[in-house]
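[step 3/7] inverse_fold.run input=structure_tokens len=214
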């Protein structure tokens, strides 16, 4: 057993070391070019384009790529961006069916992601990047605002978003993690917990309502 004075000294040293380490931890780096936001931290690197994550790379505890380098997917392939019933009441309701399997070629006319005609503005404040997309696909009056913040205490990436339109009927906003490697698996709290890999509903789009089935 250590003498009380030595234990106290070691505890004090440990606290000082932790505070010193936190003070000198590398700040996250934000770069924005050609419509792509890249966030680099000591643990990961994320690329964000057209309102979605298009690349994810792990640095710590082990380096590795979780996405395909060719980045073949586009935001419009999944129900991303601002969702609205305006002019798309039937399609919007079909999209909210609690249990749905659909072909990969399914279109989502009730969704309005950023597109080629969209203007995007980038702002940075501290450890937060703010992206404002104006003029969304088939909804020129709509805008999508996304804030991506690296949390100071944990280093986690926290995403906040909101959508607005001059037209009524907005029901939500969404983003996707695109271009994931085929061997990536998800642990989901679905009917008590399941593991989903590439074999689950292969070649299909699946929608599952929350909270009925979770």
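[step 3/7] decode complete -> sequence:
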């Amino acid at each position: 057993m250590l003498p009380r004075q030595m234990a106290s000294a070691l505890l004090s040293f440990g606290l000082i070391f932790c505070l010193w380490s936190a003070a000198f931890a590398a700040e996250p780096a934000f770069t924005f070019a050609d419509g792509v936001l890249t966030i680099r931290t000591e643990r990961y690197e994320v690329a964000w384009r057209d309102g979605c994550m298009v690349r994810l790379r792990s640095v710590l505890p082990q380096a590795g790529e979780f996405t395909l380098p060719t980045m073949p997917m586009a935001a419009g392939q999944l129900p991303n961006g601002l969702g609205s019933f305006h002019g798309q009441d039937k399609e919007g309701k079909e999209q909210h069916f609690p249990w749905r399997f659909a072909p990969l070629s399914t279109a989502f006319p009730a969704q309005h992601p950023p597109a080629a005609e969209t203007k995007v503005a980038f702002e940075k404040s501290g450890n937060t990047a703010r992206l404002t997309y104006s003029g969304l696909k088939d909804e020129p009056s709509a805008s999508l605002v996304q804030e991506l913040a690296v949390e100071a205490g944990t280093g986690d990436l926290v995403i906040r978003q909101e959508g607005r339109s001059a037209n009524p009927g907005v029901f939500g906003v969404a983003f996707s993690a695109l271009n994931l490697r085929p061997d990536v698996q998800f642990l989901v709290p679905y009917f008590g917990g399941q593991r989903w890999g590439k074999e689950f509903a292969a070649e299909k789009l699946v929608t599952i309502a929350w909270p009925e089935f979770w």
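[step 4/7] annotate
The CA atoms of residues 29 and 40 lie 5 Å apart.
The chain has one domain: 4-208.
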